[in-house]
User: Fold this.
Amino acid sequence: VRVKDGRESRIINLGVFNPVWVSKGDRLASEEVKAVTAHLHRTFLSTDLEDLKLGYEAVEWLVNIGEVISLTRVSPVWMSQPDDTDWLYRRGQTTDRCTLVLQGRLGVVSGHDSFHSDCGAFSLLGRDALRIGDYEPDFGAFLGTQKVRVLSFTKAQFQAAKELDNDETALQKAKALQATNTTAATSRRVAKSATLTTSLAGTSEHVRQELEEDAARQRANSEERKFGVTTAKDVYMQSL
Assistant:
C-alpha cells in the first residue's frame, strides 16, 4: 500500500554531509535535520515493529533533541586493536544509546569469528537500545577514522518521542518550544526555568525532563568556552 502524504516527495540531500559542511557547535543545520529525519523515518523508524515506529514529525523532534558529537580517535588509524577510549559499543555491555553516523566511519566487530566491517555515513547502530528493557549489543564498534561525527539519542528520548507521537497537541507544543529553545541559544539568551515550566504545562514528566535537558544543553553550548579533544570515552561512553 502506497500512502501519499508527502513523504514520498521528500528528497534526501546527501551533499549536506560533505566534510567541508561540518556545522559549528553541536547542533545540526536545518538541511541536515531534514536529511536525517527523512532517512531515519523511511529506513529505520517506519517499520512493522510497533515499538520502534514513529511518525515523521516525532522523528524530526527526536533528531533535534538528539546529541551531535564530534569524536577524535586517540589511537593511530592503522592499529588493528584500537585504544579502549576509541570504542563506542562493547559486545555484551549494556547501553541505552542509538547512533547514526553522520561523517567518518565506525569499525564494527561482530560474530563469534570477530568479523570486521565498516559503517559509514547514514549507518545506524544500536536501534534495539531504544526498546523498553536492557540492551546488550552483540557487536563492538569503534572510531574507524581520525574524526567521526555522530548523532546519538537515548532510550529515554525515543520513548518521549513515542509518547508525543500519540498526542498531536503535545507534539506541536513540544516542537514549538524546541524551536524557541534553539532560537534562544542562537541569540545567546538564557531562558528562565520558570518560563520553561509554564510552557510545558500539560505535558508528561517524561517529556518535560527531556525538553529541559535539551534546553539546558543548548544554554551551556551558547557560552564561550574552549573545547579539547573529544574522545569516545570522554563523552559517548558515559552511558555504558
Q: What stands out?
A: The chain is about 30% helix and 15% strand. The two ends are 40 Å apart (CA to CA). Helices lie at 30-43, 56-65, 155-165, 168-186, 193-199, 205-221.
